[in-house]
Amino acid sequence: QVQLVESGGGSVQTGGSLRLSCAASGYTYSYYSMGWFRQAPGKEREMVATIDTDGSTSYADSVKGRFTISKDDAKKTLYLQMNSLKPDDTAMYYCAADFRPVNLANMKADYWGQGTQVNVSS
Predict the structure, then answer these.
(1) Residue 1 pLDDT greater than 90, yes or no
(2) Rounded CA gap, 116 and 122, in Å?
(3) How far is CA 4 from CA 24, 34, 52, 66, 87, in A?
(4) How far is CA 12 from CA 37, 46, 104, 115, in A?
(5) Mean of pLDDT over the chain
C-alpha cells in the first residue's frame, strides 16, 4: 500500500511560484506511476501532470510550459514546480499513484493524497 501526503500549497499573486511536494511511503513505491491532479469548486477534477516509472511525463495543455513535474526516488517524493501562476490555477491539488499508468491517466488511481490548497489572486 502507498501512502501519499501533499504539502507546499499556499496563497500567491498572479505570476508567482509555488512548489508542491508529495511524500510517498510504502514498500512498492518504485513500481508506481505518479501524478498531480486538481479540482476547483464547481469543476471536474483534471489531470495536471503525470510521470511514469521510466521518467516519461505528460502535462495538461493549460499548464504546459509553466509547470514541471519531477520526482526524487531516493527521498520518495514527487514535486510540482508551478511558475507564472494564474487565478485559474486556484484549486485543491492532489497527488496520486497507481501501478497502472493507464489508470493514473484516467484518474482511476488506487492511491490519493489528502490534497493541498493553492490560491492565486489577481
Answers:
(1) no
(2) 20
(3) 5, 10, 16, 24, 26
(4) 19, 21, 29, 17
(5) 94
